[in-house]
Amino acid sequence: MVTLSSFLNESYLHELKVFAEYDGLDKVAKADIHLPAEKVSDWQVSLRYLESGNQRYRENKTINHRLGSKEERDSIKDSQQPFAVIIACSDSRTIPEFFFDQKPGDIFVIRSAGNTIDVTALGSIEFAAEYLMVPLVMVVGHSNCGVVNAALKGGVYGGNLQKVIDIIRPQTINCADLLQATQANIHHHASIIRKNEVIKRMGVKVIGGYYDIETGGVTILDDDATSRLGYSSDS
Ligand SMILES: [Zn+2]
Description:
The structure is a single chain. It contains 12 helices and 5 strands. With 235 residues, it is α/β, with parallel strands linked by helices. It has a single domain (4-229), classed as 3-Layer(aba) Sandwich (Beta-carbonic Anhydrase, Chain A). α8 packs across α9 (159-172). The longest helix is centred in the last third of the chain and has 17 residues, at 178-194. The two termini are 34 Å apart. Bound molecules: zinc ion (ZN).
């Protein structure tokens, strides 16, 4: 485990060629970067990494713009220590590694239309919680989500797409608009994950997030935020 002091240690950072380009960052900024071998057990540290990464993204100051370089691949070829699980929409504009400014090895990502959860997604989350010891799960919905909008309007599409709509539709019935429907859907899927036995046993924190495509910002939706938004909780 990497302690805070070693985490901030210049020589430790210099040993990692992958971080050579981060030398220009001050110590505060370095403290917000997950190192490949760092096992994070505190969900609040995970959240800090995500929030600081999103801040860099919003401010056009991303540092993980060389996604998938050879140095990065070498640093993670034998193991992975992701610090968070992200469930996001398949929408081509909502890429968690980008809007959280993270690199390979940092976040364990599951994507589906409308950031919906099924049994295989739950199995993937259980793997991350039990075998990778990831302390934080975030369900991230987004602005202008097409499939949530289709569910809100009660659209009929047939095929397997209809099954996705049917999963989202119940959350949207009493919602006034797409924003409320999207956030209700985020909360619903976070609630499903919270009730999972492995998640409970491992003490994993589960929260929601709302990504605004226009601003690039992710708003954290915790239980307090949920109540402020005015839709009922099913947790
Ligand atoms: Zn979407």
